[in-house]
Queue: 3 jobs
Job 1
Amino acid sequence: MKVLIVSLFALFMSVSSCKKNKSGDSQNPGDVAIKTKVLATGLSHVWEVVYGPDKQLWITERSGKISRVNPETGAVTALHTIAEVVSKGEGGLLGMTLNPDFEANPWVYVVYDYGSNYKGKVVRFTYSNGTLNSPLVILDQIPAASIHNGSRLLITADKKLLITTGDASEADNAQNMNSLSGKILRVNLDGSIPADNPVAGSRVWSLGHRNPQGLGLANGKLYESEHGPNNDDEVNIIKKGRNYGWPNVEGYCNKDAEKTFCTAHNVVEPIQAWTPTIATSGLTYYSGDLIPEWKNSLLLVSLKASKLTQLKLDADGDKVETSKDYLVNDYGRLRAICMSPDGKVYIGSSNGNDDKIIEIAK
């Protein structure tokens, strides 16, 4: 009888612990106890989450909606719906970034797919009086498809806009310098081509990408995450003018044909790869003090694996030292991530039904 009581007590404690984790009180599959709070629900295919200068979370939904979420109350306020967005498969309204000098120039950049012939475009809106107006096309006629559209945006310290593009289901275009597909592109904030790009007159900053969906700047480096085929999802350090191998190289240069191609084309190998794949998506660098164990780490969300992964970097930021997982299967497919100035982390789910914005603190 005593053994039975002890066993029942242990079972009760185990169930209670699971319920506590699910409620968002704490999550600790890695080695850091974190707290989660669902800020907003009832969303659909959240694609981007950006912490804005107004201390609001700016989000996109794939159907064409741009909204703000109040991180204190969770209230969702609609800003704008882009009527010409065509949401097809993985396509639709995707990435977004805000001008760092927002007070002087309140520009909001978005990338979306549209039209019967299905193309992608980058558009700059101006924010005023709670709405987005004055659309300016920065780049048009980006090949798009129901899969592999890339579409993460980032503005660098030297005031350049980076745009990731997928191969749009035409793998060979990733190696074609005359195609916008399978690249990381770099343009000025008005869409013109910078004079210091690798090839004069070309928007291409790097090539050989399959479906890059994460970008982050830190340590003087540009970090990128991208989807592999059935193997070799990647995190890369992006270097000016370099080749990242796709479709001739999957992950590391470790097969004979890959070694030959890598040597001939100056290919950069990933700093981390996953087989089986996890469907790597949004990426951010954690520099906050709120969760000190995460400092100098890349935080990566994934779709298929439905988790948040901490990639602890070495002192130079060149290598991944350790990898730890959090929120495994708690919120389904995770697409977007950002950090606030006070060190809180915000993620967006992308299940298509009752998607959420989740706050992570400690």
Job 2
Amino acid sequence: MWRTMYECHQVQHFVSQQLNILSDIKMDLSTNYHRQAAIQLETEVSCWYNWFCEVVKSQQEYVRTLSRWIQLTDSLVDDHRKSLYSSSVRRMCEQWNLAFERLQHKEAAEAIKSLQLAICSIRVQQVEEHN
């Protein structure tokens, strides 16, 4: 583990040195390459936002469906045949539901959207500088 951490640190240190060299060179930040990179970054952040929202929505639906299914199957079992596992699973699903309700996914989605808007404004500025 320590060897792997050391090797990763060495790679990070090398990249950091290379970036320091690049920062000393004056660069035109409105080159075609930079504009394409900004467009690609905006596209990736947009995909990230969409997938993030979809994952949260899917997980919430999954937990709700699983909770409802457990409630329905619990009502089908006789009192003397009820399992300790079903009540444990039901409690776990209830806690999972509560955790999703407390989850600050809207704030995270808004932060991602804000990043996307900032990148968009950078792209607009790059176009204006290019023109």
Job 3
Amino acid sequence: MSTLTSSTPENSPETTVALFSIQDRDSGENGRMVCSIQDDIPFALKPSVENYYRLVTEGALDRETTAEYNITITVTDLGTPRLKTEHSITVQVSDVNDNAPAFTQTSYTLFVRENNSPALHIGSVSATDRDSGANAQVTYSLLPTHDPQLALASLVSINADSGHLFALRSLDYEALRAFEFRVGAADRGSPALSSDALVRVVLLDDNDNAPFVLYPLQNGSAPCTELLPRQAEAGYLVTKVVAVDGDSGQNAWLSYQLLKATEPGLFGVWAHNGEVRTARLLSERDAARHRLLVLVKDNGEPPLSATVTLHVLLVDGFSQPYLPLPEAAPEQAQADSLTVYLVIALASVTSLFLSSVLLLVAVRLCRRRGAASEGRCSVPGGRFPGHLMDVSGTGTLSQSYQYEVCLMGESGTNEFKFLKPIIPNGLIQNTKQN
């Protein structure tokens, strides 16, 4: 039995695989022949001219299912006894590019820790092609994204042959926590076939942000001072330190601790919420001003921290005027001092003037006590002393004015009723003429 090798492309129905002829040297029935092949293959024998046959495909062959067929052709005569011979044909199915590359997963999720080094290998994608030869060679590429804010070309790259991905630069979790894109896989057939898969990159947080204090502000300006009444009970809420952390998870869990205090044991800080409370009752021996240093620390590894300074002023009550701390800005302190001096000077001048008037009235009352009668008024003939009244146009009374004093006498007592100026007639006439 001889063997013949033949090749036929897949997906080609009714294709002639081989053409052969048979013969028998006998005559009559002994020379008549019957030709056949096995039944379980997609091939058939079709007679051509006398003693010639064609081996053809009955349907489209699929190389990916069966790449090779071994066909046995049996020729039997009709003599007695019957004689037969067999001939083998090996049919190899040649590949046609009828399969697109297929990814091993429909989607990929890759986890990358932030602050990675550039050119870091962050993962791979893989696709296979059931074809053979060039039809099975796969190349990878990044497909264009529809997100205008995602500059994909600056974030990741892919090796066209191996499918190894994504980081071109250091990634920042606080700026970009996750992003996704599609990767294409194409074979080198003609025409080329392709497919794509979704890739999602998730950044893992690194503890690279220290806590940031929102209150009280630590911006170098005049410190914020908290007022604390001396009557406060133990556990009194003085203030609360408010801080945030740009990280996530345990890297953003904050705890608070009192590092230093002007008077240890007087204040305490709650570890989980930053509340500053009194630890005991206050006494007269406690200082009026206190400075607290609070530590804010995250739970990262290693932990990062920040400090905040608090100023507390003890007062007898919230109605007590607030006095600025000595650390206040010099310009503000100077302005406040000048205002106080002006108020004191104005009050002194006003007091001196009122005292002088009241003293003069008292003296005149004493002189006229005997002459006063009930319901009558006396007009004193004298004038105020010049050294008290003549102030040369400073807004006080002139010595050309007189005062009318009304006294009411009853039961031996004198009472000051009213005081009003009397303008001399000459002054009134001069005024009218002017």
